UniProtKB/TrEMBL annotation, chains A, B, C, D:
GO molecular function annotation: DNA-binding transcription factor activity; transcription cis-regulatory region binding
Protein name stated in the entry: DNA-binding transcriptional regulator, AcrR family
InterPro entries (alphabetical): Homeodomain-like_sf (IPR009057), HTH-type_TetR-like_transc_reg (IPR050109), HTH_TetR (IPR001647), Tet_transcr_reg_TetR-rel_C_sf (IPR036271), TetR_C (IPR011075)
Record flagged with keyword Transcription regulation: yes
One Pfam family named in its UniProt record: TetR_N
Keywords: DNA-binding, Transcription, Transcription regulation
Organism lineage: Bacteria, Bacillati, Actinomycetota, Actinomycetes, Streptosporangiales
Every HTH tetR-type domain range: 22-82
Keyword Metal-binding in annotation: no
DNA-binding region range list: 45-64
Region (Disordered): 1-22
Species of provenance: Nonomuraea maritima
Top-rank taxon, per record: Bacteria
DNA sequence: AGCTAATCGAGACGGTACGTCCAGTCTTCTA
DNA sequence: TAGAAGACTGGACGTACCGTCTCGATTAGCT
């Protein structure tokens, strides 16, 4: 009724029409992640995602600008099982458990990482999104290390960025190139080696 | 002499028919590399390669099983400007110059690496080929480090594989994710940090 | 009325989604017919049809199973300018005008007939379709002749199928082999000869 | 020596070098005919013919200008089992046995006719060759009928060309369109009908 | 016996078409 | 207005075939 609208000019139109169905978002992201994890994971098509989600392709494109964006969001969603930074006491144990948790989480969504990278290499938007995601993750580790420097557990001249490059570099290297699993042993070994030699 | 023939019955006829035109191979690899290095490098099509090389698609598929195989060989060819391992004296300087040379060579064909990775993520054959290429490259560095252990410049318990993972991991990380250049400074810095902390 | 629906449970949902664009069908058939009629009519490619129609090849293959099917339908469409059977009075004049009309119509789309035959000889589906088309056309003449027998203008023992074989055989023979035009004179001459000798 | 050439301009060079291997011709024509008669008869490739004949494609193209030419010659060769025109006495019986013999011979090489027509529709050279072949065959029947006119067995005003069009037209019609066999019954029936009504 | 010239098998090659597949956009109808 | 169904363009995919070409081996006649 127009008269009603006239009477409430402050919130002119809180919403008109059918609301966005939150189930759509979930279904799409779940299907994307599942398909990516399945066989033929690196060549998931939008048609396949739409079909698996019981959603029309048009609807997907209404909410995400491209396939890369869908995959990125699917990855972010899955990786949300938060790698809560521990702060148990010493830097050595903190970094160690951070890496163990990270490797474990990443390993569980490894196909998503690979699928997203495949997309990011063709679609610069997806690449940008992935960079942001990676940078955000890096921030957690950086906080940990910076704290270590402040506590005197690491010398002040330590190049934290280089250290992080080595950590995340190794991780992606296993993920994308050698395809070897990111085990707990590897995490522990890497953490100890880095901290010991830096200290 | 019939007796000779009887002695060598294995190779009755080494080759018949028109020989493979070496210009084709060169033209295809050159076109592939050039297109990969150009804009839209991540989405090079076989049609484009064929057209640029002045070669029919059929001919390409006669010699290479897939697009990935062409790109891989193009990369290998370009990377052939051999990073000759120096052995100038101390391990520290040797590793340093190895990394400087490697980073420089890789940086110059960075788009090829990215394009090939894009292919490897969809085509498992290409992925396998790339793993082989990477493993071969790793061998050079491994020889250098093993020599260092033998000379007592590195303690015998040093985990060389982990060290190489950190080096090549960082390299690919910059190449694929951050897209930051692989500078000489970075190479030197990385080499010194690793050797110092291991020694 | 729900009761009506209950009585007709076969069509639960008449149609969903975007409708087939009728312009596509027309454009494809028109382009196919035009290309077939042009020079190089015997070697029309799907790419050429798609390009000429401003339609993607994919869309053509969505609606027609093969090239032969497209050409067949193009021919049927063009031949639709109906050779209405006259029934002016005597059998002699009726058959005469039928043949004149048929030859005239066929002559105008002769290249389509040839192009379709070229396809039918490679594609058994197209051959089957063409046989159906030919059989349908034959029905018109059969009705005319049967009527003539009933009216006593032809003896009851006349082999109508043989007569039609001679008529259509001659037509195709000119069309495919001698490439001589199907003139009005030929039609008249053939009609008179056949009717006179049968009567 | 140029002077030698100048001295003998009439028979410059009778022959030098290796002679043409007659087995090649036979093998090619046999393979072509056999493949055409087999399944997938309408889509015989030159590669297939060459392979079946144990002959290189190059050799085929040395002696025949195109695929159509090969098929044409294969047909001519196979149809050489000569339909010797009988002249047993009356026109009626002569034409009858001519048609029976012709239909029988044609039926046995029907796939060749169809394969050649497929080629003739794309290759105007092949079409021309086929027209010549058809015209030559027609000459036999024409001689028979002309003789009948001279003997008074047919009225002088009979249109022999039209009669032949009807005969050969029907034959091709069955061959190419209806794909029904050219039986002896059909030959007899056609011959009697035509002669009776013309006389 | 050696030279010369043609034949031939094997197969590489360019060009062109095939029929399939996917990303992203647009259209129609239902809720 | 959200959403499902699905038509549509554009462009790449890998395969097939035609007719041409190149290579080396073979063979026949002439010197």
């Amino acid at each position: 009724m127009p008269s009603d609208v006239a009477r409430e000019p402050v919130a002119p139109r809180p919403h008109t029409g059918r609301r966005r169905n939150p189930a759509v978002r979930e279904a799409v992201l779940k299907s994307a992640a599942d398909l990516l994890a399945g066989p033929d994971g690196l060549t998931v098509s939008m048609d396949a995602i739409a079909q698996a989600a019981g959603v029309s392709k048009h609807t997907i494109y209404r909410w995400w600008p491209s396939k890369g964006a869908v995959l990125l969001e699917a990855l972010v969603e899955r990786a949300q099982q938060e790698t809560s930074i521990p702060r148990t006491g010493t830097l050595a144990t903190d970094v160690e458990s951070f890496l163990v948790a990270t490797f474990d989480a990443v390993e569980r969504v490894a196909p998503l990482f690979r699928g997203l990278m495949a997309e990011a290499l063709r679609d610069s938007k997806a690449a940008e999104g992935m960079r942001e995601f990676v940078a955000a993750r890096r921030q957690g580790l950086r906080a940990l290390l910076t704290h270590g420097v402040e506590q005197g557990e690491l010398p002040p001249e330590t190049d934290l960025e280089l250290m992080m490059d080595q950590i995340y570099g190794l991780m992606w290297y296993h993920l994308l190139i050698t395809h070897t699993p990111l085990t707990e042993e590897l995490a522990v070994h890497l953490a100890r080696t880095l901290i010991r030699s830096a200290a």
